Amino acid sequence: MRKMFVVVAMSAGMLTACDSFGQAVTSHTDVLARAAGHELTVTQAASLVAPYRDVPAQRDVVDALANLWVDYTLLAAAAAQDSLFRTVDLEPLLRPSMDQWMVWKLREKVIQVDTALTDDELRALYEQQGVGLQVRARHILLQMPADATPALRDSVTALANELQRRASGGEDFATLARSFSQDGSAQQGGDLGFFGRGQMVPDFENAAFALQPGQVSGVVQSPFGLHIIKLEERQQTPFEEAGEEFRATARQERESKAEETYITSLTDTMSIEVQEGSAATAREIARTPGMDLRGRAANRAFVRFKGGAVTASEFLAVARTWPAQMRGQFDAATDEQIVQVLVGLARNEVLVNEALRNDLSVTEVEADSLREQMRFNLRIAAVNAGLTSIQPQEGETSSQAIDRKVTGFIEALLKGEQQAYPLGQVSFVLRSQYKGEVFDRAFDAVVARIEAQRPPEAMPTPLPTPPPTTTTGEAR
User: What kind of architecture, by CATH, is found in domain 133-236?
Assistant: First the structure.
């Protein structure tokens, strides 16, 4: 797939393929997508992709193409109606942004922290935290399979303890590593080179950074197996070179700690409780953010707390503000990780309520500023795609002119000649207001049509066989 098309599919704020906007039965079985009265047929979609062999004929590619076409057709239709996008109803997107604005106001008002640090205090903190510290270590790794039998575990552990005893007793560590270590560093005597914080798994890192040069660790267990570690060197960027940058980091840490202390004091008494099954439903919403939640489904409480709740519709509104990549991470996230996100949303709502209690609501001027920023983003996207001031050519209707310009834009993307400005959460508003839908039932037909339109790849012409030669190199 062309790199540009991948970028568009990941970042343009597009929906996954879904008939959630309407699965009405249609007699036009060859329709892949509809948007503001326009249609993209199976034949048209296949004709767009077929010329580009490096764009694979796959369902996910068709999904990306269809959603891209919907988003930019709706953008063109909205621009034709009003180039300043004043007719686009942005209120569904305004609430999450206004809530965040109020939380920032509350933070500025209630969190007061002393961030002044003398040079001596800063130096002491720098050395205490080991900022810029790197260590060079060797290790011996004995692998321990996750399904190892008790007998095998006992055998590997006994060997690890024996090697640790020998290394601590002064036996050459590099020689032991070459003989026993079961990873790629064995040939280098277990030398891992220099590494900093965050580059190794936590258990290994904590053991390595706790050592002084020349010291050997005890047996350390990690997901990779059992390690014996020897520290060779420690080096740290001099305070004089990094002090001022570290001062800004230290201030941020103090502010963050004060903020967390305040939030905890506010939320610990609120009895925040995630409801059973909420993680699975949240995962589904993140997967299909174009779904239309109504009635009981919309009002279902994901999290309850004293005086309020985070509902499914509120989670949907927030999820639509996230980049597609972030929403995609929910598929691989554990229930525990999703629960933490939901608890975070509940804590944020508690803060919003506290801001309102402190009379820190968003003013109309501030709300207008948010709306104008959203409309500005739409104008930039439309101008970038060449979808403003579209004029019909001779014999062409306004609707046909929009189709021509959107098709040209997508072709330019496929050729790598154009970039797509991310529409983000605004695409959901456009789809709701101007009606846009993608029919995944047509995906397979588009894939088949693309494959049918592409001629078979030419077989390479075989090279002629040279005549046999004598031992002197002369042809016979």
Answer: Roll (3.10)
